[in-house]
Protein 1
Amino acid sequence: MNIQGENKTQNRILSLLPLWIVIGIFMIGPLLVMAVVSLMESNVYGGVHFKFSLSGYRQILFDTNLFDEIEFNPAYLIIIARSFMLALAATFLSLLIGFPAAYFISRQSDRVKNILIFLVTIPFWTNLLIRTFAWIIILGKGGVIESSFNFFGLLDEESSLNLMYTNSAILIGLVYSYLPLMVLPIYASMEKMDLRLLEAATDLYSNRIELIRKIILPLSMPGIIGGSILVFVPCLGAFIAPDLLGGGKKLLLGSLIQFQFSYARNWPFGAAMAMFLLALVILVLIFNARLNRKHREYANQK
Amino acid sequence: MQTKNKKTKFRYVWNFPGFGGWTAIFFGFLYIPIFILVCYSFNSSKFAMIWTGFSFRWYAKLFSNDDIQTATINSFIVAFAAAPLATIIATFSALALVRGGEFRFREFSSGLITLPLMVPEIVTAVATLIFFASLGINLGLINVIIAHTVFCIPFAFMPIKAALEAMDPNLELAARDLYSDKTSTFKTITLPLLTPGILSGFMLAFVISIDDFIITLMVAGGGATTLPVYIYSMVKMGVSPEVNAVSSLMLAFSIFIVTLYWFFNRKIKN
């Protein structure tokens, strides 16, 4: 018995070893190296000087002016705030668009439900870059929207609506990118909902708005929270939408980080920004875990 | 009369007016941009935005573009290396985590699997770039393959885990009762029953690898350009009908694999 037990432990460890090695070396390893790089001095040619320095983090808030004095520089704070606002707005819009759709899908017959959910997941599996690029054709100068405005005589040939390179264009791109991630968890929690509750409430003279507010919303709360996090987190670090639809003019956290490694060549600052983003995401995930636990405790009490 | 009236109202309780229309708009929002992109790839005009007529001209042009062909081959090399690697790692992990009962590294190991999903893509991309650069590892496509293997693991893992959980453990016990040893039980019972799950995991990992852009953009050096990275550089130079054509082909390819996966899974369930 004992021998068999040892054997079993050995087997488990053997079969988990490849996972530990690959994720340990090539996922946790890079994150640790990045943490170290964020604490070093930058090298003008890219790469780093091996000398401890907090300049990467200091640069998020302060700048050195011509006279070598340290000055408060709100430029990056503005970018962080903009990322936050856009991610929040995208999450809220996705919820607004996705919630009724998730509900409608969850009330269909099994066959229809499966097909519709499959249609929701398809965009998730297709290339995000290409899907975002499709919006350039729609929003861009002389694109689908402008040419249809032309066609109906609402816009003359020379002028442009200037839809691209705006916060709204980025917002559309973000919602479009991550909308399926909002719908799927909400759908999952609605599918399990007991319909008799709705009947009972209607029998007790509830109207439709009360049905949504007092039954459907509370019961789908785990899905709403889950979906919001699945949308909010990638929006916070989004790179494609701000880069293609914001034209690189409206920097967000994601594009700012990428910029430090492609053009600006300030690795410690880029690494510090990436650490900051990672910390934000971890905070969001901890918050989510807390909410989930509370929800479970509440459900257990009942 | 009154009961009948009440009955129709009763059935209507969980159907909200306007939700159907809203869902139609929702699907329109998801699919119309893709549809427009595909339509424009058949545009004969040299200017991507102006419609002049139907033509296959840009698709034909793809076949004479060496850069696109190299990038496509690179994409397939990476996906055909990373997806099987990720699938193998995911299969062994799933076997240990689902069949292994409670043990010390359980939580830790499942945490490791979901880690690539938790960390924002741009952070993973930048961290991997720094990692390879500071260690001086510059192996071209192999760097890309390693990076892809890491983030493909959770996607390969999900369907395999689901298949294992759905499998009746009594079948394995029965085989053991009938004096089949561990290896042959695994070979004749577990593995054949698990094959559909493993194939599903492979397909998802493959699609995720083929479609990845941000991590590849940061990790791939010169000569290791994959198709999405090449498309990005084309888009950055300006929208051309050729981009539309190659993008439409990529979309069609991903949709094809995922549809295959769906039908495949539905067959298993039945």
Note: The CA atoms of residues 161 and 249 of chain A lie 18 Å apart.
Protein 2
Amino acid sequence: MGDVIDKIIRISGRNVNLCYQCGMCTAVCPMAEYMDVKPHQIIRMIQLGDERVVEVDAVWVCASCMACVDRCPRDVGPGIIFEAVRLVSLRKGIDKIDYRAIEDLEAAPTLAMVTASRKYTG
Amino acid sequence: MGNDKYLYFPGCSVKRDAKSYEKTAFDVFGKLGIWVKELDKWWCCGATFGLAVDDVARHLGSVRSLIQAEQEGAQYGTYKLLTLCPMCYNTLKRVNLLLKKDPGKLDNIRRYLRDENLDYKLSVEVVHVLPVLYENRDLIRKNIVRNGSGIRAAPYYGCTPLRPREVAVDNPEAPSIMHVVLESAGVHVVDFPFKTECCGAYVYAYNRKAVIGKSSMIILGAYKAGANVLVTVCPLCHYNLMLAYNSMKNKPSIKIIYLTELLAYLMGLDDNIPHDIKSFLDGLAPAGEGGK
């Protein structure tokens, strides 16, 4: 396994090898229809050591709603692992949003700004 | 019931963007005789719980507020820390749970705080407003002064009061406590399939189309089930739902309101209810009851 995959596994604290690809996470994910790679497929990429997982757009569409984490029959916790994938980029200082590009920034309430800052900036 | 005592953590939203949520909540608490004391000092909870195992520093804001609650708890005789915002609830509750379950994390946090002579002894219990209102449902029923039979309210829980299940205020798959509170308040309760579906949360900043899609589905789901009021307890859900509603070409006749705004209205506590909500609810009153 490469460094990136090791890091994802280490900081997520989860065991991706428990996943048997049942697809429950994708079935219950409210954002799956907007994802390029579906939740169970992201987990499969990590199982196979595919470092391209850090380029997957879907981890940024994940809303951390915990629907998959609560229902995973193997307690893999996909939604927790996706945070680890995001952090691989964010901890290198690669931000995912540019505040100047957010439409109606002035109208966004504090809570929206704080949550987005926590999830999309390093 | 009615003699509960709580310390109160407000958080950013209810002080700026959801003022009527807090003000109507306090009007309702006052009427029900629920004693609520705002913390003398509080810190941003962080709004989202840090999920990585090595992200301990992200929990510090929440820990500082828990310590503040512990100190004030000794003074006021209650260690229950109440929140209105469910994102604050979720974050504070999960940090509290993490420290209770994981002594290593607690040690880590203690090392951060040692220089400040602060310690946390795990005595605080984080509580959301939903179960508090549920426990006081009989008292709510006794204090209703308006006829709410024209109001068809769809309770929308969203994510953070229910997931992960360790912090759920009710059965996370089939919650009913907001249903019961609304029933006690005399309105017609409309169950709908998306009551626990995510509104899209912070993703509005990255993929607005997805958030508008999700939130539109929730609004239309409630509307098609027969609701004329969609009831939320979350300022971020409220923002996303309004974003979706305002983007609709054909706007359904349904109003997105905070639970406590509706309760205050039904209890005749009108001072802090926004005008547009008051007039919308007046319009739903049965004939001869001050409405149409």
Note: The first helix of chain A runs from residue 3 to 12.
